[in-house]
Amino acid sequence: MLLIIAPACQCKKDNSVTPPPRPEPPKDIYLVTAIRVNNIPKDSLVYNDKHQVTERWDYNPTYRIWQNYIAYTYNQEGYVSMARYYNENDNTIRSLSQKDSVAWNADRFIIYTTFYRELGNEISGYDTLNYLQTNNQRMLTLVGTKDTISIVVGVAVLYKQYQYNGKDITQFQDINWYHVYNGEPELLSNTFDLAYLPLENPLFPQVSKNPLLFRTIGGDKFPYPSDEYYPYLLSEHLTAAFTYKTDKVPPKICPITYKMYDTTQYPQTQSIPGINKTIAYTYKVIKAD
User: Fold this and answer.
1) Is 96 left (phi over 0), alpha (psi -120 to 50) or beta?
2) pTM for the full model?
3) Long-range contacts of 140-146 (CB under 8 A, 24+ apart)
4) Alpha-carbon distance 246 to 250, whole Å?
5) pLDDT of 7 above 70
6) CA–CA separation, 286 vs 151, rounded Å?
7) Among residues 36, 28, 74, which one has the least CA distance to residue 53?
């Protein structure tokens, strides 16, 4: 008798596990520490170890020194909670002139202001300013009010409105309507429609959680507009161009040009044709420790 012995068939379960992908190396963080406009110093920014702006300094062109400054503090979520405004006389005596306490509500950003005198020892008054916000990313959508308010010589409607695509401002409107007693109503409006590059704006992580810094860097002197500083640099990405128009001026397209740092995708200079003259921003960008 022949015995035919066949090899046993073994079915083995594959217990091998695909290793998880390696985590990407941490992304380098770059910080804007100084801004010049038309080659004149404008902003000097000081950061803490969380990369939050703790101080923003003003440049005094007469004495050619950094003099007055704003000191910021933040809540546990990383949003600004207070700003203190300091004046320096002859760069030796420092005095507190104003304190802004900030409240973040569901749909509003409220500033409670205290004014000081006598080198910050005496309170001279109080004020409250509401910043309305409606999107879920805590981005400002309306500054001021669309309701009629009383002014010394009549009534007015004063507001600034921001529209977004994601975290980029697509339209900025500055509306100033006045009706002086015994006079005709007057409308002063400015509208900016903005387009963007895919490049990131290194200022965005700071200004997105600090609207007070947003206003200061943007030159937004509410309720009066500034002719030189508008939100060209206050979105998540760098602005490629904008279209500007007013109630009296037809639309004007203003492309923006950049000179980038050799080692990063961040701007060293930003040149804007502007409304009446070219505006050139120069940035000092450093790698965070």
Assistant:
1) beta
2) 0.82
3) 140/109, 140/211, 140/214, 143/220, 143/222, 144/222, 144/223
4) 7
5) no
6) 46
7) 74
